[in-house]
Amino acid sequence: MNVAKLGKLIRPAKVQRAGSGSYPLLSMTMRHGLVPQSEKFKKRVAGADLSQYKVIDRNQLVVGFPIDEAVLAFQRSIPAGIVSPAYGVWDLTDEAETDALYLERFLRSPQAIAYYKAKLQGSTARRRSLPNSVFLDMDVPFPPPDEQRRIAAILDKADELRTKRSQALAHLDTLTQSIFHSTFGSGVPAQSQHPVVKMGDVLVSATYGSSERAAISGDIPILRMGNLTYGGDLDFTDLKYLGANQPDKHLLRNGDVLFNRTNSADLVGKTAMFRGNGPAAYAGYLIRLRTSEDLLPEYLTTFMNLPSTKRLLRNMAKSIVGMANINAKEVQSIRLPLPPIELQQTFANRVAAVERLKATHRKHLVELDALFASLQHRAFKGEL
Asked: pLDDT band at 42, cuts 50/70/90?
């Protein structure tokens, strides 16, 4: 396969400022490229004055940061939008010879990311930069235009399958809350037909995790804030470890519930249930909630992740040096409806069925991720 320097394929775009014009506001995402800011954030994060924002025409390349996480994309969705003035903007030198989707796929590929990581300059993590001259000196596999479009179409189709599988998982996350509402009502204590109790009355314990420094290797995996998902599950793909001699108060049993007690207001209260038999520990900024025989962990986890409970937690959280915080005593003061244990068990059985579906989708998603990585590797070596 022929190779071309990136500097032969793109050039700096002439800067256009928004001025007094009215344009859609775009934000960069790692997974989906440029999207309307309203799709990325629940509230507007840009300032009121957008006059210095950059106008991005269709088919222009926008490069964000950190570049070693492939935060870049071509603008392909609208005639023109605006992005942060901090982003770099590039034009294709010859749109007839270079397919934008193909080039974007390469610039976001593992091969390109390895190049960025090797060439970054600076000493502060996530603030290291790649000089334009180094960026443009990168070698790009460069087949004829028809072959570029063929490769891009194959990778696009494989990525579409991954996206659909991820969307199915997201729908299953919302299904659990739908089952909760159909079984128990709104979950708001004041509206409940069931007795309302303080959480501390139906917990065996509410315990802080280990403050021991975690390492890349060790004997016992330690679950941290990033391992808790918004769907009430645990993600085990990025783990650190502790030594073998951990006290029981820092270890997890099957059915323990983890509560994130600090960070930003949006992250405080993120709650997930531990489903496992192997030893695992949890970090100090998490609280382990161990339930009594009157409260099932499936019910508690879903209740804590309800939008109505999230609003309550945001109002409870205190700001300490810019970080929101809820302590174990405050968690135990939360009031929750307590349905009969038989009804909770019916709900838990339904949740278990959803979890089995989610496990199947996760397995298939892992397989699709591996397929996509293999296709990328072969595509940019001229073997696809």
From this structure: very low
Does residue 326 contact residue 313 with C-beta atoms inside 8 Å?
Answer: yes
Query: pLDDT tens, 183-230?
Result: 999 999 999 999 999 999 999 999 999 998 888 888 899 999 989 988
Q: What is the pLDDT of residue 301?
A: 96
Please give the structure tokens belonging to residue 337. 């409806």
The encoded tokens of residue 91 equal 């034009």
Q: Are strands 72-74 and 61-63 parallel, antiparallel or unpaired?
A: antiparallel
C-alpha closest to that of 232 among 312, 304, 337, 164: 304
**Which amino acid makes up residue 182?**
S
For residue 240, count other CB atoms closer than 10 A to its CB.
Answer: 17
User: Cis peptide before 66, with omega less than 30 degrees from 0?
Assistant: yes
Is pLDDT above 50 for 31? yes
User: Does the pLDDT of residue 314 top 90, yes or no?
Assistant: no
Q: How far apart (Å, rounded) are the C-alpha atoms in residues 196 and 193?
A: 9
The rounded distance, in Å, linking the Cα atoms of 376 and 383 is: 10
Contact between 343 and 286 under an 8 Å Cβ cutoff? The reply is: no
**Distance in angstroms (rounded) separating the CA atoms of residues 45 and 28:** 13
Please state the three-class secondary structure of 190-252 as a single string. HHCCCCEEEHHHHEEEEEECECCCCECCCCEEEECHHHECCCCCECCCCCEEECCCCCHHHEC
Cβ 104 vs Cβ 64: under 8 Å = no
- Rounded-to-integer distance, Cα 296 and Cα 188, Å: 18
Residues, the chain: 384
Q: Strand 33-36 vs strand 54-57: parallel, antiparallel, or unpaired? A: unpaired
Sequence letter at residue 155: L
Integer Cα distance of 137 and 8 in angstroms = 9
Cα 69 versus chain centre, distance: 13
**Closest Cα partner for 210 from 184, 246, 263?**
246
**The predicted structure's pLDDT at residue 106:** 97
pTM here is 0.74
